[in-house]
Structure formats: structure tokens, C-alpha cells
Write a structure and sequence with these properties.
Number of domains: 2
Radius of gyration: 22 Å
CATH superfamily of the largest domain: Mur-like, catalytic domain
CATH architecture of the largest domain: 3-Layer(aba) Sandwich
Number of helices: 16
CATH topology of the largest domain: UDP-N-acetylmuramoyl-L-alanine:D-glutamate ligase
CATH class of the largest domain: Alpha Beta
Number of strands: 17
Strand order of the largest sheet: 2-3-1-4-5-6-9-10-11
Structural class: alpha/beta
Amino acid sequence: MRLAAAVLASRVARFASRVFGRGGGSTVPGVVARRVDPAVLAKLSRGLPRGSVAITGTNGKTTTTRMVGRILATSGVRVVNNFTGANLVSGVTAALASDAGLSGRPRSDLGLFEVDEASVPGVAAEADLELLAVLNLFRDQLDRYGELAYTGKVIASAFGSLPRGGAVVLNADDPLVASLGRSAARPVFYGVEDTGLDTGRLQHVADSKDCPQCGAALDYDAVYMGHVGVYGCPRCDFGRPRPVYRASRVRLAGARGARFLLGAPAGEQEVEISLPGLYNVYNALAAAAVAGEAGVGLEDIARGLKEFGGAFGRVERVRAGDREAFLLLIKNPVGFNEILRTFVTGGAAKNVLIAINDNHADGRDVSWLWDVDFEMLADARTEGRAGDTEPFMVSGLRARDMAVRLKYADLPVGPVIPDRAEAIKAALEATPPGETLYVLPTYTAMLEVRKTLSDLGYTHPFWEDG
């Protein structure tokens, strides 16, 4: 009786949220349901025939979760997920409540949830998790999470809540993430095996470059991005675990996407994705590992990844009349560097709008902007590799901070328009017909930019996506 009341209350809250313009109803319904029945998440998750999967980490949660969802749909598995990115316990609860009938019985076979790093223990304690994937741990929102080692301990504390036989899928190429395997009953590792992608040096923003066991500086045979690569400790026995899901023969094709050979316990399969950059190869590889451990065959994995077109605002193309807006979410130095390296240094991005907010969901501390390697753009211009790029337009609550950072990197700064709606309109108008505007926003700025694009009739509200 209490469960039925909680489900009904969540539906009323969801309807009211959307009618009164308070968002997509992706979080508040979960808060309401939990007040009516504090055990609602545990009760609903127990009704899923195939249990639940959770995906966490600093970068790529939403994209990877949606990739897994596409793969599972391709293989005929009905999935409930928090596709809007509401990744706290309340968001997971809201997703399950929206999927259930008034009796409390879920309509789907499996729960698939992206989960905020700090919320992993809470979700694992209540949901019936068969799989937990940890993608990466980069320095991100230090005012919320603290240091990376602490975040790793928080995530590892959830491993004991998994049922017997439950797997923890881990990125072998991230030393801190790989070290969490010591706390897992059944760790499953994935990684890239293509030293041709070696950048040749650890970036300034490399975070976990010391051995998590003894503290010695790690030796790297290859560095792919940040502190992610092929490594070993010269002092103790810690080193990169051998991955059972592997990406080799990686071919990056700029904005057109990438191809790689997927190696798995079941064999090998060529994979093609339409999302750009090595960071999306990692997302696809993680999705393949999760789907493989969930029992999906390699052909369905490859087909699902090929069909996947991106998650809203993360890597999303929006047709805006005779122009295009290409939204690329930024949130920390490593991710920002990879976007700059993929699009801007090669000259693909000629028209760029950067929008920086410092709301709670973005992280209040914007000092991380000084760790982004904007100087690589200045170097690319000097060497003639960056093309004829217009001055960067800047927006957001911390627009002036961003403008100062660009000036210190000797990069041209165009209009500084703090208001996000005005900025996206001005940036589109300044973009020549037939060309693409590259929009690099932090999380809440992305939501504001996307709302403006929706209000202009160029796309739909984010909760209708999926």
C-alpha cells in the first residue's frame, strides 16, 4: 500500500514539474516518493528480473550509460534508466518510479543508472546492482568531492553491497581506478592497447601519476590522456592489470568518429562509433564491457554502438536553421584538453563559444581553468595547424574569468556576453551560413544554452530525449 502511494505521488510530482515549467521531473518525483516510502528504491529494484547496472566516474557517465542502453535495446532487453542525468539517489528513484505500475511492478527487465561518485554507496545499498562500472577518476569539483584518493575510497566502500557474483567493471588504464580492483570480489578490467596513441608525456593536469600502493612515481610506457595510459610501479608490484575487454587498432577520424577492434572473452569484433575523440573510444569500450558482462553478444554490441548518436549536450549536434550548433560539455581540465585537442588544434572548430558557470552542479571553484592547456592552441596557430579561427566568444557567470585565461594564453577574445541566452543567439548570428558553431559549456550553462535552442525551435526539451 505504501509503495503504491509512493509511485502515485511521484507521478503527480513529475506531471506538476513539467506543467509548471520546473524542469523535466527527473529529480523531484524521487524526493517525493522517498518521503512517502523511504524503502521505495529497494522495493522497486527488487522487482527487476535482471537486476540493475550502475555506471560512475568523473567523465563520460551519461554517454556511456546511454551507449549501454542502446546496446541493450538492440539485443531486446527492456531498460529503465535516468537518461536525463539526474544521478543522485533521488534521480534513480524517480526513474524506477516512472517505470513502475501502481502496483509497484516494474515494466522493464533491467535498471541502468548513471550515478554520481559520492552517491554510489547509497545507490548500491538500496538497488539490486549486478554490475558497477567505474570509468575514470579525474580532478573535478574539489569543493564537492575532495581529493581523488578519497573519492576512490567512497566508491570502493560500495563494493560490499553487491550480491555474490556481482562484477565491478574497471578502467585498467587509470591507475587509481585499477587499484580499486583489490577491494572487489570480481573485478573485470577494460583498456586501450594501442601505443600508437601515445602522447609522449604526462600532461600538467595528470592527477594519479603516483603508485596508489607505495606512493612512488609511476613509469609510463604510453600516456593516452591525463594520467591514463600503460604504467607500472618501479618500487612495488603494482601495475596495469591485463584487460579482458580491449580496444586495439584505434583509428580516430576527427568529428566523424572512430573505429577500433574490440577484443573480448567471446572473441573480436570491428566497432565503429560516430562520436569523436579517444575519450569516446574509452566510453564505447566501457559500454562494451558492461554489455558483455550482462550477456550481450559482440554483434549486438557493435550494432548498438554504431547506432548510438550521442547524449544531449555532451556531444550533440543541433541544426539551427542554415547553421549547426555542436555542443561539447566541459567540466574539468582533462576533458577540456581532449576537446581542444580533438577539434580546435586541427582547425575544425573555427567558431567557438565557451560558457563557464560556477553553480553548485558545475563546482564553485573555477581555478581549474588555469590547468587547461590553452597554450596548445597558441602553439597550433604558430605552427599553422589551427586554421583561420575567429576570436573566442565567452559567456556564463564566470565569463570574465574565462576571458582572462584566454588572454594569458595569447588567444584572441571576442565578445564577452555573460547572459547565456543572448550569447548563443549572438554566436549563431556571427557564424557564417553553412558552418558550425562549437559550444563548450559547463553543465548548467549547457542546460541554459540547450533551453534557448529549444525555445528557438531548433531542438526539444532534454527530458524528451531518449
